[in-house]
Specification:
- This protein is mainly α.
- It has helices at residues 2-11, 17-49, 53-78, 83-114.
- Helix 1 (2-11) crosses helix 2 (17-49), helix 2 packs parallel to helix 4 and helix 3 (53-78) runs antiparallel to helix 4 (83-114).
- It is elongated, with a radius of gyration of 16 Å.
Length: 115
């Protein structure tokens, strides 16, 4: 929350303190809530689709779309000027995190089948 919020505030500081504060608080709050909710949704979707490679890819793509659309909508409401700069670090790291978690779940299910 703190890292992404500070980053969003920093990249919007050129547009004034109020804009930096709005962007920082919006992105920070989103980063905290989305990590929990989007990861949970991705894992649930993976479980429903089955633990295989195609399910991993579909789960990721669907939740990535959600992970992208929510901050775009949030920053549109906040009037953030430098939206892509504000959301890019969280989007990159969040994507990597979700893929990693899904991969762990797929591997764990594969191990259960072997044992």
């Amino acid at each position: 929350m703190l890292i992404y919020g500070v980053w969003a505030a920093f990249v919007n500081l050129d547009h004034g303190n109020e804009m930096a504060l709005r962007a920082g608080l919006g992105q920070g709050a989103y980063a905290f809530v989305s990590t929990w909710l989007v990861t949970g949704a991705a894992r649930e979707l993976l479980a429903r689709l089955g633990y295989h490679t195609l399910a991993l890819v579909l789960s990721f793509l669907i939740t990535f779309s959600l992970m992208l659309s929510i901050p775009l909508f949030l920053h549109a409401l906040l009037g953030t000027v430098d939206v892509w700069e504000a959301i890019l670090p969280g989007l990159v790291w969040g994507s990597g995190y979700i893929i990693f978690v899904l991969w762990i779940d797929v591997r764990a299910q594969a191990m259960k089948r072997i044992l």
